[in-house]
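User: Predict the complex.
Assistant: Input components as received:
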Amino acid sequence: MRQRQVVQGTRRTREFEAFVAGASGRLLHTATLLTAEAPDDNPRARRLLTLALAHTYACWDRLRGEDPYDRTRQDLALRYAHGTWRRHGLLLRGRTHSAGPLAGLAPQERLIVVLRLYEGVAEEQAAALLGLPTERVGTICDRATATLLHPPREAAPTVVGAKAKVAAS
Amino acid sequence: MNRNQREAAVRQLMERATPQVPADLYGDAVRRGTRMLRRRVVARRLMWLALFAAGVAFTVWALTARPWVEPPSTTTPPMTGW
């Protein structure tokens, strides 16, 4: 019994290490896009990702063929959604206008844009994950896309610069 | 600009700056994950222990109180001496 647990533990550690080495770059990028932080200064994204990865590690033996990347992404998205709900309206709202390409969007718009366009999650899956109707997810995604490509006048200068670059290319 | 072009433009916008993965991310995640697992094991043990204690308490109470035995009557006086 003890022997089997040790073998299972070393196997889990080895597999998890390979998974983190392969997936953490993309997942950290996702988390940084969600929190709208600068790529070189992203404490909140790191914290979110560490917690999501720890959860995946704890569930590793019970995945049973499920994709660990998918699981971590779901956990990340839900943690972000619950976190913004809790700190909604607090002083931290001012900080969300800091940096990143999606800084001009609301938290929910950011979450849907990242899941749909960056991660390529299907509309139905994103809707099921967030508990929203499918049409609503599509509407929010379209609106957020429009906001990103044609930002309002008071938008942050980074977004305006990004739009100029996209238009030029 | 149709929908596909707009989505491609947003994708391009998002893929530009890639953050650097910190070196201690893996260690942190494993440490927290191990703690989570250990807590789960402790919680499961406590649950079994509580269940066992409740079972023992119920058995002891049942053997001492004997709730299935009919209680002695308090309205009819005992029939003695006839």
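Chain B has a mean pLDDT of 90.
Let me know if you want any component modeled separately.
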